[in-house]
Amino acid sequence: MALIPDSFLTELQYRADAESIIRSYVQLKRSGRTLKGLCPFHGERTPSFFVYPETQSFYCFGCGAGGGVINFIQRIENLGFVEAVNFLAQRVGLPMPEETDDTAGRLRLRILEANREAARHFFKNLSGEGGHQALDYLRSRGLMAGTIRRFGLGYAPESWQGLTDHLKHRGFTEDELVAAGLTARGESGRCYDVFRGRVMFPIIDLRGAVVAFGGRLMGEAKGPKYLNTNDTPAFKKSRNLYALNMAKSHKGDQLILAEGYMDVIALHQAGFGNAVATLGTALTPEQARLISQYAAEVVIAYDADTAGRRATRRAADLFDQIGLRVRVLELEGAKDPDDYIKKRGKERFAQLLSGSQSATEYEIARLREQHDLNSGEGKISFVQAFCQLMATLRSPVETDVYVSMIAGELGIAKEAILASIADIKSRKQREQAKKIDRDLHIFAEETPSRREDPKRAIHRRAAVAEDRLIRLMMKNPDYAERVAEQMSAHEAVTELNGRIFKAVFDKIAAGETLHMASLSASLDQAATRHLSWLLATGDGVAEGLTEALDYVNTIKAERARAERDPTESDSKELQDYIDTLKKIKRQSGGNQYGK
Ligand SMILES: [Zn+2]
Fold first, then answer.
1. Distance 63 CA to ligand 1 centre (A)
2. For residue 17, how far is its CA from the centre of ligand 1 (angstroms)?
3. Are 169 and 23 contained in the same domain?
4. Which of 206, 125, 132, 190 is nearest to 162 (CA)?
5. Distance 31 CA to ligand 1 centre (A)
6. Residue 382 and which of 31, 324, 517, 588 are 20 to 30 A apart at CA?
């Protein structure tokens, strides 16, 4: 099992999409974020077989079959794990790794080498014959020669073969160049350059490797204004940020999130070396977490137009979810940071940065715009929205400041507003409690693990905390690292979860990625089924690092309790559990999940 390199399984996971593979065996109907159909592994008339594209897993609530796409093939084609990997690899046209060599790893390396050479080539073009138009553009945007060099900007001429030919002379194969996203293959099979007639922005990762490119259209050439490298084996757009390689060494604990490459470069040139940008897409949760690893506070400096405001709100929400302090820049009288600095100077921009609104102030200002504070009705709906916002704040001091401000301004008693906030908060807490009740309910009904892991029945609270923690880590692999620092796998109380923790922590320690394909390679069948059940049953509530660490504490406490007194302390819990089971059996007229 372990003979298949992790990098290969990652590549396979990426290419062999669970939805399309399973679709070729089972008729699936989409419902929200999941797909369902009739289980191919047991006879049924109403569908209880679910596929989860997000986690690339499947689970049948009827018979308890579950796993990743490799496990699906194993079961439906009746193959061993390695045979199933082979089968899938063939199906998606991925050559199997030969003996010991790490094909995917080698390809990644070749892509990085090709990118480096391409960046050199683009940079050289800038001072070459065809480059003056691009150079003029960069100068017209106020960039100095040193800045252009530092960011390695370049030019891709309007030629179809220039780069491809150059790199082929340097020993790269067409397949490598296509994999790198530098070259495309036409229908006739002929290869041509992807970037043509563009100013080129190399994207450099934290290790200093050129992983991708952004290209801005020049002159008369056709195509989208900005073109970015698609995901390749060496690059994932959603996990990288432009200029983070430079911004990470900036002193201070603040990062500026700007909208595009040019904004970032202009900010760096003006002395704000802590600016970064996403790569032509909206901010992703992965990028938000990446930023939180390098800063305690982020300042959003998006364009001052409608799209920019919408993107600002979305980004502020994402940062808020992971507990990062957010400020929002109001660029009065300018369309973007670059424009602002040009019009008012960098000193004013620095002032703006230090005095920028907190995300809460920004939200309050937006609420003001949305409600007519001159009418009674408008006031009421404003206060309601304001209370909702206040209920999400963690700091009582911060809450008090804003409540006092709004109470004074609208002439409403502060106590009334505080009472309303307390109301919303306690409603939220009740929902939280319900969430746990529901867990215990599902827990009592669950099929596979009840039989295979008797400890789950004895240590229910530990099992629920472990279940929730595993789900959380699968959704946020970067939290898994923090969790691994706090606990070890043998601290898990129940058996199946213990095995899953071990597999997860081993992957983390080896610097490998967490996904169904690689985990199922190191888990036995029972644990794989349990994992897919976990992924199938979460309540979809987004939980953060705080919750993760809380679960760790619960597990440790339950472990200590179990060790102190393995039988007696849990006997009441066990009785409760048996009672719940009986009740469910009675309600459903028999055990519908039994085989
Ligand atoms: Zn089934």
1. 4
2. 21
3. no
4. 125
5. 18
6. 324
Q: Could you tell me if 501 and 548 are in contact, meaning their C-beta atoms sit under 8 angstroms apart?
A: no
Examine residue 97 and state whether it is found in any structural domain, yes or no: no
Helix (H), strand (E) at residue 210:
strand 210-217
Taken as a whole, the chain contains a residue count of 595
Residue 125, pLDDT above cutoff 50: yes
CA of residue 449 to ligand 1 center, whole Å: 16
What is the C-alpha to C-alpha distance for residues 68 and 90, in angstroms, rounded to an integer? 17
Do 115 and 210 lie in a common domain? Answer: yes
pLDDT in tens, 152-170: 999 999 889 999 999 999 9
Residue for token digits 């002379």? 169
Which CATH number belongs to the domain containing residue 64 in this structure? Answer: 3.90.580.10
CA–centroid distance, residue 61 to ligand 1 (Å): 7
The sign of the dihedral angle between the CA atoms of 301, 305, 310, 311 is negative
One domain, residues 308 and 359: yes
Among 426, 442, 464, the domain boundary falls at 426
434 in Cβ contact with 516 (< 8 Å):
no
Q: Note whether 419 and 474 are same-domain residues.
A: no
Residues 517 and 571 in one domain: yes
Per-residue pLDDT band for 464 (boundaries 50, 70, 90) equals: confident
Distance in angstroms (rounded) separating the CA atoms of residues 91 and 102:
20
Shared domain check, 436 and 413: no
| Torsion angle of the four alpha carbons 487, 492, 496, 500, in this order, in degrees rounded to the nearest 10 | 0
Does a structural domain hold residue 238?
Answer: no
Provide the CB-side half-sphere exposure for 477 (13 A, CA): 18
DSSP string for residues in 120-171? HHHHHHHHSGGGHHHHHHHHHTT--HHHHHHTT-EEE-S-SSHHHHHHHHTT
pLDDT in tens, 16-73: 889 989 999 999 998 878 899 999 998 888 899 999 988 889 999 888 899 999 999 9
Contact of 156 with 214, CB cutoff 8 Å: no
Distance 517 CA to ligand 1 centre (A): 21
Cβ 279 vs Cβ 237: under 8 Å: yes
CA 556 to centroid of ligand 1, rounded, Å: 35
Range of the domain at 411: 373-426
> In the chain, how many domains are there?
5
Local structure of 522: helix, strand or coil:
helix
- My answer on whether 208 and 250 are in the same domain is no
Query: Are residues 110 and 220 both part of a single domain?
Result: yes
